[in-house]
Amino acid sequence: MTEAAPQPAEVFRTRRLTKVYDTGKVKVMALRGVDLDLYESEMSVLLGPSGSGKSTLLNILGGLDRPTSGEVWFRDINLATLSDRELTRYRRDKVGFVFQFYNLVASLSARENVALVTDIAANPMPPEEALRLVGLEHRMDHFPAELSGGEQQRVAIARAIAKRPEVLLCDEPTGALDSKTGVQVLSVLDRINAELGTTTVVITHNAAIRLMAHRVIRFHDGQIAAVEVNEARLPPEEISW
Amino acid sequence: MRGLRALDRKLLRDIRRLWAQSLAIALVLAAGVAILLMSFGMHRALFETREAYYERNRFADVFAAVTRAPRTLLPEIRALPGVRAVEARITGMAVLDLPDHPEVAVGRLISLPPAGEPLLNVPLLREGRLPRPEARDEVAVNEPFARANGYAIGTVIHATLNGQKRALRITGTVLSPEFIYTLPPGGLMPDNLNFAVMWLPERMLAAAYDMEGAFNDLALALARGAPEADVIDRLDRLLEHYGAQGAHGRDLQQSHAFVDSEIEQLRNMAVVLPPVFFGIAAFLVSMVVGRIIELERSEIGLMKALGYSNREVAFHYLSLAALIAVAGIAVGYGVGAWMSRELAELYAQYFDFPYVIFANPSDAYAVSGVLGLASALLGALRSAMKAARLPPAVAMAPPAPPFYRRGAIDRVIAALRLSQPTTMILRGIFRWPLRAALTALGIAFAVAVLVSSGFMFDSMDEMMDNAFFRANRQDATLVPTRELPPVALDEVARLPGVMMVEGGRSVPVRLRHGHLSRRLAIEARPPGATLARALDADGNAVEAPSDGILISKRLSEVLEAPPGTVIEVEFLSGRRETAEVTVAGVVTQYIGLGAYMQEEALRRLRREGPRLSVIHVELDPARHDDFQAALKELPRLSAPVMLNRARQSFQETIDQNVTVMATIYVIVAVLITVGVAYNFARIQLSERARDLASLRILGFTEGEVSYILMGETLLLAIIAQPLGWAIGTGLAWLIVEGFASDLYTIPLVLERDTFAKASLVVLAAAAASALAVRRRLARLDLIEVMKTRE
Fold it and tell me: The complex's ipTM?
């Protein structure tokens, strides 16, 4: 894919973004002035060792945390100025999350875990369709305890995309999975990105995953160390680690 | 043991962290300990005090009243098998004219033997001395009467003895085992101001009542193990021709019966209430310790890896329960001791004991403390054993997620098409059905406590309304010394302030049906009586037909004589004949046993002319004092019963006790509810924290998330309501059955209000508990949840 064409619209834009965790005695600089633009329909991978600030950035982008200073824009909304209530609203309407540990509700079946989100979303797809998209149409009525790790993560992805979010934020989505299952999950993410055009951000410390991204943003010590555009993306099936 | 010190520190920190939950449990436990301490301690104190008092002052075993029997009969009575001692006395009732006392007071007169002290029912001198045997103007009075009126030794009071007014000087005050609980005639509450018990020399009473060489009251002490019923039978036969009204044992002696019912109540309280509290506390401890152990799996694994033994691990968690118990027991001791003092004061007000024996209060402390501790340990035992048995390697690994799987219930829940949060709530309940059921049961008990105490107020109202406003509408009832001809009514009607008079007759009888019998008085009334009436089940006035008898419900039950049954009437005064009458109906009457006939029908049975033995009057409220003053000068009336006074004192007593009791029961119910609901909600929060945080990340608002958190608690609280109503109704029924005696029966009046109030209090307490836990939602760390595996 070539990037000579005009830049697509920005979805996220951060300027001089800093985050300081103040525990009273010690101050930890998690982000030290991050300037970053993420574009519509792009799949980007934030790569870096643990403690490099990538999760902090994802939390701020997802409306789970606020920056200490700097700007963070979602389209024309300045996330830094939103109230708790408005952030909840933002998460509810715009953002899909995928976590390392799936965070499924144990007392709800796969279908019900997805319905959890579609019940409160403005323009959701039916839970069954979301589960079909992740290839779990045969296990819709299973409870989390009856599903494998990869299947649970795919339910989590279905839950994240069912509301047709504008952005999909994935925090170490394959961190708890073996390579083979991890690849299955990645291909689901890839397909969602391609078919629905959802802006997708994947954070990982697994360098192999960078091969499937449009762009790779390397983090180090709270700053962006490098931004690489992938001229030749690999399909997830060809990735292994 | 040195290593345990770090564990002890962990224990203290655990308690500090869990202080609110621990406190809630400790208070429930404290309620059990306090009630047990009080009821057990007071039960023993009351029982042993009474036993000692009876023993030292030789309280009689059998009592009999006659019209007049010669003393020559006494050797024969003494010779009855099983009789240890006999005391023959002269007793009577007198109208009193008290200094500075506008109202008519009544005195019960009791003779003192000419030489020495009585053999039985020995009065206990509190102050001064007993009257000299030859004195004609000396009297000893019961101490509460003297105290209520502020009389000292030397005070002179006037009494009309058998029509003669006498001035009597108080020489001493006494207490007697016969009068621990003293009711005035026709009264429901002690009235020390207007009712006196008076001890006078036998010679003087014999002269006044024309009883020389005779007696009209008999008390017997029985040999240990002597069959009471046989002695009563033989005594009745001996006394048959002397106007005997039937001998009876202590069970029908008024004072004894009341003290006995109080002792029985304390025993019931000790047996019924504390187990409920201990059970709930044990359940709460088990729930909380169980959850802590689940959360501390890895610590348990670590402790074991470090070399702590299984026993030490179990001991650690049992210590947590023990610490909670110790706090609860300490609070329980404090509250229990305070409640015991309050109750002792209440008893001092109603019961006249010369002393109180607290035989061994440390027993009560030991028993309530040990049971409190045992229930907490028992609650923790299962979880502690589980922790002890956990292999270290397994313990260090995270627990398996709660295993929800598809089942019939899930299909039902899914078919209901509820929202996902509601589904989560329902699944939570069905996942741990026992825990949910016990939680609902605990809250239901709080409702039951309120229902089973609240109904009493309505019941008392109903008793009062029935007895004083619908059945007995007269202001006063006059009781002549002997039966009068009907013209006496005109005389009474002319007294100042009298607006209406109504005569009646009260005839002592024994009613028999098969082997069942009861002693009471048949009330005979003229047709169309409007003051004193009998009431049917709906509260409407009913009159006996000309050939039948109406009996009170309780009497119908104890005689097993429903309407239509033919029962035997044995007259216990005058000509002792027996007759048969048909039970024509059952009347609603809660106080005492009652039997009612037409005046004319009774006369036919007895083949007698018209007579009066009671006169009911309605008074002009403005002229009460004039009426009272006139009454003092009316020699032939021995005992006026002022119903206004009885109404007033009953109402006052109820009002006084209602507020205190209502407050106590509300506190108890709130304690239980908060203990159960708060702990349950805290465990909900602990178990669901991760789910709830995930939902917050997914965009659920705090309100939506707290619906899930509070929903299960509140849903169980709501489910608990009908259960609580049912248990409360059952308890109320048990209480009513337990109280039911020939003295009085309590109607089971369950108004919708009682249920509503109970539910309101409990639901409010449950909601407040859940809200207190909800505040912790704001502190959920969303990012932490996302990062960690449970």
Answer: 0.77
